[in-house]
Structures are given as structure tokens and as C-alpha cells.
TrEMBL record:
The lineage of its organism: Bacteria, Bacillati, Actinomycetota, Actinomycetes, Mycobacteriales. Residues 349-606 form the EAL domain. Residues 207-340 form the GGDEF domain. It comes from Mycolicibacterium litorale. NCBIfam families: GGDEF. This is Bifunctional diguanylate cyclase/phosphodiesterase.
Amino acid sequence: MTRSLDQVVTAAAAELMAATATNVIASCTRVLADVVDHLGVDFSFLRHNDHVIKATKLVAEWPIRDYIPDPDPIGVIYFSEADPIFRQAEYLKKPLIVRPEPDNDDYQRRIEEGRGVPSVSMACVPLLSGEITSGILGFIKIGDREWTTEEQNALQTIATLFAQLQARIAAEEQLQYLAEHDDLSGLLNRRALMAHLDDRLSDGRPGPVSVLFLDLDRLKTVNDYLGHNAGDQFIKMFAERLRAGTERPAVIARVGGDEFVVVPDGPMDVATAESFARRLQTWLQRRVVIDGEMLARTVSIGVAVGAPGHDTTSDLLRRADQAALSAKSTGGSKTAVFTTEMASQHAIRNDIELHLEGVIDEASSALVLHYLPEVDMRTGKVLGTEALVRWRHPTRGLLLPESFIGVAESINLAGKLGRLVMRSACADFARWRSRGTATDAILRVNVSPVQLVSDGFAATVDGTLAEFGLDGSAVCLEITESVVVQDIEATRHTLAALKEVGVRIAIDDFGTGYSVLTHLKSLPVDTVKIDRGFVRDLGANAGDLAIVRAILALADAFGLEVVAEGVETVAAAKTLLELGCPRAQGFMLSRPVDGAAMEALFRQGHIAVDALRDTSATPGRG
């Protein structure tokens, strides 16, 4: 039974609506074959226009040629080199009918020379996406043929279906690309990396599978002092350099703001992977030019190797991440291979997580406060102190905050721990003052991110001050720079409420890479504390010197007090004094001491700073 044109169009619609990115060519070919058969023509083609390279690309044809050369001479035809008919396909907006007539003798002659047929009749219908001609659908009959209005209308409908399919597949491919790629660097994202590693680590696949986990050292400093555009440009250039420096085929992914993963194709043992990582590290640390500035960031690389059928993706990535953290913790710009010792450190974390909540809930004496004095390096006067929590672990000895604060935050105990530290510090400070010491000093207490966004935090602080009879101006709450920008509106609201209570506010670890600069003017901040990473090598590192100068200039512009953290050398201390920054903390001045020793220091009033007497310090902020 002969089908009508409407039935052919309906069948085409059903076929193309069911097409996917994986079977689109086959579906298009079937539709072309069906239409060719119904119209009784000899050839058909579907082509898509690439307006970027100004060319038309063959997508499907019927009948399929017995032999398709490589390269295919009709696979990609540039409009500038095309015959007059094909050249019209670039901007064609309505059906084009070509029949053996004098007006197109040149085209007919080309056909005869190329295909050996004396003349053809052709109907070309554009694929339109809005005002854009996205392709062309063509049907050819050897010899002459009349194309009825009904046929032309049907072909236009089918062309519309092809255009819709083209747009849908392009959208699906774009969504798939976005789902698997990082939009800034163009590298694969974590999701795609996980899928790749799941496949590589499946039972029966060749191994070992090596993973390189790259963590850029202090990248966010670029964002803070050159702006986010510069930081984004650096990430893009780093990604390009990473591709160029990966000498063997590999999957490369960006899994965080400054974290990348490289998975070499094919089996690779740990020694080869470590050697590869060291070569890559050297390559990546070369300087690049961003907005006229020469920039170089070091990178810490962790290496781990897994066995297919034995190790999981999450295990392998965790090991590589732990190795990178180990490399970073030793100062960065290192390569580290995962070891069982790192696994032991992970076990320690699990132990801490298991017992920490009980210690906090019971306000156990196992949690003690030590205090880090704040000193005027010009005179040695003790200006204040920062409360630091310690944990006397029953089996692991005295644990410093970095051993358990991160765990507390990860299991939602940071708020409880913060309240306990604040009450204990205020109790000690009030007791010292009642005995006539620390009367003009300031107590600094660190605030966790959880506390800062908790409802009623300001009221809790107010109640604690009232409980111990302390004036708010004697207490300074310290928040890290990263916390400020996590939720700027909530931060602004909480800080405003704290200022009503009367306490002072300091931004801790200032300069470590989070963009607080745009908000600094609008936040009720009194003090910035220069991160120890910029102070430790001050006097020997020109880059750190430039950053510290910039921080001091910024603080001066906003009328902020500055405290330098991590003063460990005479050179750093003298440089700070020369820059006009006398307030400081650090092991050169005093290590953290227990409550009794801190009270004694307040009573004494001064710490010896004889080593700094020969400097000609510029008067600084008091």
C-alpha cells in the first residue's frame, strides 16, 4: 500500500524524536532512505553548517557510498571553495530548486565531471534555527524532475524536524560536556574523574593505576591582591600548562578550586609515578605572565597507586589527597608518595572523632587553655593574649588544635567547643584582672564558622561577658579570612550584633587567599592579623615583603590595627618594625604558655626584646 507524504513526514517525526546522541546518524540515515524511496529520487544528503569555520559538513547520506575515501572530499566543504549552489547553503532561507536549465549550466557541468551524469534535478531545503541557517537537506534525481508544492512543503517540515534534532543533540552534548567538565579550566570535573577511575579499578583491568593529586600552594593570594580575573586567568594557564607538561596520555581533572588530579593511561608503578610527578612539578612551577605581572605558584603533589579489583576509587583518591597534604604540610613545593604512616595518621583522626564529643560535652579537664602573648616589639610590653585550646589525650599526649579542630568542624562540634573555650578564657581573664593584672590588656578568642552564623551568638557572647564582669572592649573575637566570605550577609549581620555588645573584631590569617577586600570597608572590623605564612620568612623573601607591605597599606587606609603572627626570627621582627608594625606574636617572643604562666607574664608586664634594640624602627601603630 502506497503511503502519503503526510505518513512519510509522520514516520520521520517518530524516528527523529526517538533519536539520541549515540544513534543520531543511523536515525537520520533511515529517514533519508525512507524519503528517497517515497520520492523516487536517486541521492540524498543532510549537512550541518559550521559558521565558525565557514563550512558545511556531511552528516548523513543515502544511499551510502560503497567507498568513502579518507579524507572524504565532500565531508567538509568550505563555502569559499564551494560551487555556486553549495555556497548558497551558508545563508539559504527557503527551498532551492535546481533543474537542468541554462541558468545553472556551470553546476550541471560540475556534476557531470564529478559523477559522470549529464544532468540532475535537486531540491535543497535549509535547516533553520531562528535566523541562523544551521544546515541543508538535499534530494537529487538524475535527469529532470518537477518538485511539487506539496513535496517542497513536506521537505520543509522534515528539514524543521532535522533542525530541531540538531539543536536538541547539541544541547544534550553541551549538557553532557558541562556535566563532565570544569567550566573554567575545561578539564574534566570530579564526577567524570570518579567514573573514569571506577572503570580503571574494576576487576580484570590492567594495573597498577597511579594517581597524582596536585594542590597549588597559596594560590588564593593571587585572587586577593591581583583580583579574581587574574586568579581565573592563572587557573586557565595552569590547566594549559598541565596538559602540555603531561608527557604521556592521561586523564586530567580539576577537583577543587586549587586541586587537580592526573591519572596516566595504562599501568604505572609507584616509582615511575613519583618520577613523573617530580618532572611535572618542575614544569608547572615556571613563571607565567598575568596582566603584565610575572607569577609563579609552587605545587604540592601526592602520589598513590591502586590495584584493580582490590582498591576503590574513593580509597585511591583519599590516599593521593593525604599524600598531597603531607607534601603541603612540610612547606609545599614537594612530592610525597602515600605511605602506611599516612594511613596511621588517618587512624588517629578516627580516634579523635570517636572521643572528642564526650570530652567537650563533659567539659572535661582534658581540655585546657594555653595562651600566646601579644607583644609590642619596640618595648617588650605584653599587650594581650590569644587563647588556644589543647587536649590532653589519654593515649596520644597533648594534642594541638590542628589535630582536632578540623575534626570538630566536620562532626558539628565546633560550636560547642567554641563556647567552652570562650567561657574558660573569659573566666581566666576575669580572675587575672581581679588580682590586679592584665587591666589594660586584650583577650583574643577564636570564633569558629559555625558560631559566626549561629542564631543568638551575639547574645551568648554578651551573657558570657556579663557572667564574668568583663567589658566588651577588653575582648577581641578573631575570625579567619575564609569565614568572612562564606556567607557575607550572615557575617555582616553577626558582626554588627557583636559590635553592639562592645567586643572588638579581628580578621585572622589575613592574606591567605579569600576575597575579603571588597567587603572590608563595610564590615565592623578593628584588627587584621597577618598570616604567619607571610611573616615566617620575612626579611628573606621579597614576595612576602611585598604582600606584608600591601596589607599594612590597606590597614592604614581603613584605620585598622595590625598584628603580625608567627614571628620566629630576628630578621622578621626587625623588618616588621621597619615597616611600622610593632604588635606581634610568635615563638621568638614567647611560646604558648599555660594560664598560670600567662598571669605571671601579665604581672611582669614585659618580655625581653634585647635582640631588637639595635633597629631604628619607625613609629608604628600602637
